[in-house]
Amino acid sequence: MRNTLVGIATALVAAAALATAGPAGAATTQVVARYDMNETPGSAVLVDGSGNGLNGTIGSHVVLNGSYHSFPNIKRGNGGTIDPQHLDVVNSARLNPGTADFTVTVRLRIPSIAASAGNVMQKGQTGTKGGFWKIQLDDGKGRILCDFVSPTGSGGVWSAQVIADNRWHTVTCQRSATQVSTTVDGITTRIAHAVGDIANTVPLTIGGKGSCTATPQHDCDYFIGSIDYVEIQSAG
User: Fold this and answer.
1) Average pLDDT, the chain
2) Residue 159 in 3-state DSSP?
3) Quick one: which of 126, 227, 119 has its CA closest to 169?
4) Which one of 2, 118, 143, 198 has the fewest beta carbons within 10 angstroms of its own beta carbon?
5) Dist. CA 175–CA 37, nearest whole Å
């Protein structure tokens, strides 16, 4: 009887190990960076809470209150305004998706439809060698876009919901080998596209473009609103 019980116990342990191991060769998704946006007023360092040390800089025009970052209104229109101090900036190649499954989650609040033009964050932009990824607001319509562009393919998908309503929303942008998806407060829209390898040498900017001329053709696309946290994950 004892040998029988030992055999059963061994089989159960083996079965449990198989159940938790996942498919053979499956990549493990890990947190690359986590920005909790809880720096106190006057701070200049954007702290990576993941433990990976991907700290960045905080623009002096970003408003801090110890709980979230607020990005104030920026003059728009013909000619616009260039304000690099409107941005949080992180310079790390680890924030490139490469060819891996890649996920960006941000909790944000947008005051109104009128303020819903602009780029929430991006690493690279149109014309950047090696491609880019970005999270962008639909101009005047209050929806949000997750966009991944490589030299060999691209995929972008808008949210189904309007989120420019002065309420907090959680947005997750995800790129896999076969699709791009946008999830807002648990509701997902997706598109089937194989994007390809995205790897550039420019920094991640939170709050708008890192390179612009503030002309109608090269708007700085500054974000107006508040961000509670950003988390970036990769299976690479």
Assistant:
1) 87
2) coil
3) 227
4) 2
5) 24
